[in-house]
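Sample entry (387 residues):
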Amino acid sequence: MNCHVPIVSVIFLVCVVLLYNFPRYTDHDEAALRAHLTNISRDATSIPVMTFNMRLDCEESDLSNHYTKRIHRINELFRSFEPWVVGLQEPFAGQLLHLQSYLPKHLNVIGYNRNEHDLGHPSRHNDFQVGMIYDARHLHLEEQDYYWLSETPRIPESKSWNSMGIRTLNIARFTIREGVLAGTHIIAFNTHLDVRSEEARRHQASIAADIISRWKVLYPHAVFMMFGDFNSVPGQGAHRILTSQLSDAWTNCSLSHSCTTNAFGTTFHGWLGTFANVYLVRPLQVVAFTLSGLGLEIPHAIPQQASQWARALARLFAKAPQYSLLESLPAWPYDRLHVDWILYHHESSPESSTVVVPSLVAVIDVRSTNFSSDHFPVVGVFTVGRK
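Predicted structure, serialized as tokens:
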């Protein structure tokens, strides 16, 4: 019997090493994806977009992760990809003011429009936490709207359902300026659902879905896209609610032979970088998202000290689950635990002639160090055609 112990131990260690190191995502993989992304983005019928939680400006335990260090990487990301629309999450107004000093002048920022004070005024500190950046060379902003995802959506700063933060929905209607798609409307929605309360996330998603349905009636021929950090993953409540109105671009891309994607399992990495993608971490992520989907409170950042872990465990077991296990589990297989999504309307109403098809949906700017944020951006390139 004893002679088999070393063999079992060796097999166990080999398995741990493999789980620790795979799947690999290399610089070569990233470079190849970017080259293809640049190539297809130039097509006359393509619309390149991005969703990106760029992380608020706050004190960081690792100084290289501070916003003043990351801003150059974010600038490089926007310049290299050149998206027409970017849905941002978390930035303070001051962060965007700082970022604008680096970005090309044709990239405009829209958030909550108070019609008073400039971007640097203290009253506007939180006005761009679901801000959007758009390329004015390609798009003309026709109108904008803004909702608070609460029981009183038109009352500024309102929140409900034990939401940890004030959560909002930013809406913009653009017209494509020129080319074969000239005159086409793009309706863009951007949001950031609550990080703590599953009840709040589901209600917030329901309000957003209802608003989207109304815009679809108003503009049946438009291209619809939604960006966001939804603090939940495919298969869970918010995803089911929102995909009743829009389609998941990643899901449809992965089912198409003509669409490019990359097998990267996570978008929130919490400063762990590519390590957050390895198989060894996957079971922990599934457990964390399931607990969150049950309505239990999990930490919204990775605890760094024993005292933080103790407080997190105390909050976790402070109340009973609100939802069933079956409706709280992430979608199987657990190879896409993304909290950041791009949703779209793949075909407008039966009387419409507009058809939207993803040609690329992928996690990008994947790094093991020198991060642009604690989330990896998700990019999409959509081909717009006519029936």
